[in-house]
Design goal:
single chain, about 260 residues, 8 helices, alpha+beta
Length: about 260
C-alpha cells in the first residue's frame, strides 16, 4: 500500500466523519439575541428587519444550491398562521427588551398518532365558514336518525346499519362539498403528532429587570420532549386517478393552541 493510498483512505474517513457531524446538527438551532423592535408581520409585504435565527451550518454544496433554494419552504409554509401570530403577539405586548437564548438539538422522534380529515382543509373552511361544523352536524344528524329508528322499532333497533350510516354520510357530504367533485379534485387533511426528544437550553430574560421570565436561568443543557402537530393536504384527482401529496406544516407544539384544529 503506497503513501498516496493511505492519504486517500484517511481523506475518505475524514469526509465520512464530517458527514456524520453534519447529520447530527442538521436541525439544531442556536440563538442568543436581544429583541426590542417589532417582529415582522407575515401578512405585511414590507421587508423584515429582524434577522432570522441561526441554524448549525452545513457544508456548502454548490451543485445543489439552486435546487435547494427552490424546494426549501419559507417560514409561512413551515408554520401555520395562528402559530406565527401567537409569537408575534407575545412580542408586541412585551413592555421591555427581551434577551432570548435558545440552543436546541433534536435527538430522536417518534410518531404518536396520525389520522385523516376527509374532504376538509383549513383554506376551504376559511373561504366557506359554513363547513366548520361539517362533522359535528353530521354526527348530530346520525344521532337523530338513530333515535327515530329506535322509536319506530319500539326499542328493538338500537343502532343504524352500515348501509344507513353510509347513505346519510354520502348525502350530507355531497351536499356540503360538491364543489370539490366539480373541480375534479377531492381534498383531505392528514394530521400527525410526533414527540421530539431534544437537548435544549432555553431562557428568556427581561433586560431591564435582569429577571428570567421564562425558561431556566442556570443555562444548563437539559433533555426535553416536545409534542409537535403537523398537517398536510392531500389531493385526489379522481379523473386521472392520481394522488398529489403536499408538504407538512407545523400547526402546534406543546399544545400552545390546544391542537389548533379550529376548523372541525
Amino acid at each position: 500500500e503506497t503513501g498516496d493510498d493511505k492519504d486517500d483512505k484517511n481523506k475518505l474517513h475524514s469526509d465520512d466523519d464530517d458527514e456524520d457531524d453534519d447529520d447530527d446538527t442538521a436541525y439544531s438551532v442556536r440563538m442568543d439575541r436581544t429583541i426590542d423592535t417589532p417582529i415582522h408581520d407575515p401578512d405585511d409585504d414590507r421587508p423584515s428587519t429582524t434577522k432570522p435565527l441561526t441554524t448549525s451550518p452545513k457544508k456548502d454544496n454548490t451543485k445543489n444550491t439552486d435546487t435547494k433554494s427552490k424546494t426549501q419552504p419559507n417560514l409561512h409554509d413551515m408554520l401555520e398562521t395562528n402559530l406565527q401570530s401567537l409569537y408575534h403577539s407575545a412580542h408586541s405586548t412585551a413592555k421591555s427588551k427581551l434577551n432570548i437564548r435558545l440552543e436546541c438539538q433534536p435527538k430522536s422522534a417518534s410518531l404518536v398518532s396520525i389520522f385523516t380529515v376527509p374532504l376538509l382543509t383549513r383554506d376551504e373552511v376559511t373561504q366557506n365558514p359554513s363547513l366548520r361544523n361539517l362533522y359535528p352536524d353530521l354526527y348530530q344528524k346520525l344521532l337523530v336518525k338513530a333515535m327515530e329508528e329506535m322509536e319506530r322499532s319500539d326499542g328493538r333497533k338500537t343502532q343504524l346499519s352500515w348501509r344507513e350510516v353510509y347513505g346519510e354520510m354520502k348525502e350530507f357530504v355531497e351536499d356540503k362539498v360538491s364543489s370539490q367533485e366539480e373541480e375534479g379534485v377531492v381534498q383531505m387533511t392528514v394530521v400527525a403528532q410526533a414527540v421530539i426528544e431534544c437537548e435544549e437550553v432555553f431562557c428568556v430574560r427581561d433586560v431591564g429587570l435582569g429577571a428570567v421570565v421564562q425558561g431556566d436561568k442556570d443555562g444548563k443543557m437539559r433533555e426535553v420532549s416536545h409534542l409537535v402537530r403537523f398537517e398536510m393536504v392531500v389531493d385526489w384527482d379522481w379523473q386521472k386517478e392520481e394522488l398529489q401529496i403536499g408538504n407538512w406544516q407545523i400547526t402546534d407544539w406543546d399544545d400552545l393552541l390546544d391542537g389548533n384544529i379550529w376548523y372541525l
